[in-house]
């Protein structure tokens, strides 16, 4: 049912539809949000855990839907890289993220010489730019909620069609489907996954990628992410929708979950997924929110009396910039495609350009921040790189 043009599912779990949402963000709701295209977003968004199935989500009320619509109306995909997708800077060769995922997929399965690929949530076609040259005989089909990049996508080699709007435009059958960083935006994930199941070949593969909330607490702060997944919850959702999950990886892409699945065969028993009890999930989410609050307070204190920079211009760094506000003087990035540009009105510099009197805050998950700091300090002695203090990390 719709109210004022928005879906009225405010009190429902997005997965099991039960009205058993439990607020877990009480006390940390002062923290601002960030959009998924890396812009500070001045909204206080409560976080819930479903007491029936353990799903972690936002409440899909009128305010959330209006915020999401406003974000998507001015969405600027990969702005700093002029439309080019993220590179994996931890990789020695700095490959694109789509390329890295495809490398792993091709290691797991053998793709036929010809086939039909659907990229669900194709954006400006980053998956096609990687997949097409490797598999030139494949037919590539794009689907996106926004038609902004239609002409750009349709011109890519191998792309046969671009669809926008209703899912029922997509008809069987596809040999491979990709959905990279899409399901966290979808307010009816069961309906979407069941339709994708319907149009997938009997032997076809679905490759799904989402942020891993256990490894990336900053995902909770993304205003337009309505769902927050961990490995067991994503596997359980896919099983609910008729899939057989045969590979789930949390190390292929940092802070992300990559799943390979196929249609479950008739009479095939679904795998059972060990989901932590609801109280454990609640405690884990609350610890992450508390850690984010303590990180924000630490950064506010550090930035109050000295030149202050933030490492990274993606979600975490952009969120912290929204917290600190005018006290951010610059950003630091190791990506050559970003250095020399500006982000949120501040210059982006290389680590070597940081002055000795400045501090650079590594707004990253604890272990990753520590590893990067160790590397940067050894490479640039005398420069001050600060990692988040480990306050309430026991049992994180």
Automatic annotation (TrEMBL):
> What InterPro entries does the record point to?
SAM-dependent_MTases_sf
A molecular function GO annotation: methyltransferase activity
Q: Which UniProt keywords are listed? A: Methyltransferase, Transferase
| Gene3D superfamilies named in the record | Vaccinia Virus protein VP39
Could you confirm whether the keyword Transferase appears in this record? yes
> What GO biological process terms are annotated to this protein in UniProt?
methylation
- What name does the UniProt record give this protein? Methyltransferase domain-containing protein
